[in-house]
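User: Show me sequence and structure for the first protein, then do the same for the second.

Assistant: Starting with the first protein.
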Amino acid sequence: MTAGVPAAPDPAQVRIDVQRALAEDLGAGDASASLVAEDARARAHVLCREQAVLAGQAWFDACLRQLDPDIAIDWHHRDGAALSAGTRLCTIEGRARAMLSGERTGLNFLQTLSATATVTARHVAAVAGTRTRILDTRKTLPGLRVAQKYAVRCGGGSNHRMGLFDAVLVKENHISAAGSIVAAVQRARRLHPDLLLEIEVENLDELERALSAGVDRVMLDEFDDATLSQALACIDGRAEVEVSGSVSLERLRHLATLGIDYVSIGALTKNIRAVDLSMRFDD
């Protein structure tokens, strides 16, 4: 079973992420691995101890290959694969020192990204068979946004904007600083005519003003079911609809039956628990 196999991540970004992470862990050198003979070789495997969706192979590989370019890593499953407890993910052969020095950093990437993919897959399953798509947010670990958003795609979800540069999302503070919803929308259209223009609204009055101003998408933030029904009747196809704010798995299916286009969920990248993985040397 595969939740999703997205396009490979940007190798340059992976390299940057890994260089930073290895420098943080290794510092002036791995004092523990120095106890092992420099030319010693080993064979190892990575084990998944619980149900999960795999994500982060490129980052794991880079952690080891930056330390031993000739290391051999044979993956038995691809990113996006649904895993059961006890699954062997890959086998590794190469310099023992490189494996020991890269182990923790590689597993940190793999367990964190697999956690995001796993949580995403659960949310995607809740809306299966409907038009509703699950979106992530910018609530990512600093420096790991590209990685976590890749993991969301591994879980079958979709990415919202990557950052502040590739879409206009007008929120409460933007409206306050601009003077009004109309002023904010007009200025956004003038300055960024080719970008998606979305506005977050918190009540029906703001919704009507946003629709009248001509936005592409409205984000209904923290609407209860009764107000949401009123909002959908008001929108009536005039804009795409995104729902956000404390959306539980239990409520997701109900939202999907209403014909919501998107549900954005910060918990995909923010409230995650690392998947239980380990690397073991073979005897």
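Switching to the second protein now.
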Amino acid sequence: YYYEEEKNFSIKNAEILVENSFGKMGIDIVDTPGMNDINTAREEVTLNYIPKSDAAIVVCSAIHPLSKSEMDFIKSQLVDQQITKLFVAVNYSDTLRTETARQSMFELFQEKLSDIVPKDRIFLVSARDALKYKRQLAGDTYKKPVKSYEKTGFDKFEEQVLNYLANDRGNIKLQRYSSMFLTILNEIADVTLEHRKNAIMLSKEQLEE
């Protein structure tokens, strides 16, 4: 995207083609800008994608776990938009040196997100180690190699996300719009006659949605 305030930034979009299980199933993964960007226009890119999404993967940090802005984003943007299928990937799990530290971090996220995300959709992962492991398979060598993909946490994370996108997203999408429809019906039923007249004046685009 091109923004007037950034004269030296002229890239419209970038497409990365990778042969993997997601792509073979026709699944599009959109990596949007973060919500703490100083450029509000880039935040708008993220907000515009949310209503179109079947699921959302929220990437958090084990170093700075769940800031206020992240919690606000999850509650006000994802939950309010009826994005009911949320996955939380807690990155930098490689900085947690002991199993006790890992368990404590998991419990922290579970507690803060208990009313939003089930614990089986919260994953401790190490993106760095996962990438390193795949590079090892391609022939790269490291002084401290990653012994297994399972240790990165990405095996279970990918399995859960892929299983949902392959088998459940149709039902979840219907549930999402059903929930939105019932919400609208309840709102119409509770308002005055004047508000009901306003509801009839919805635009063609709103009616189609």
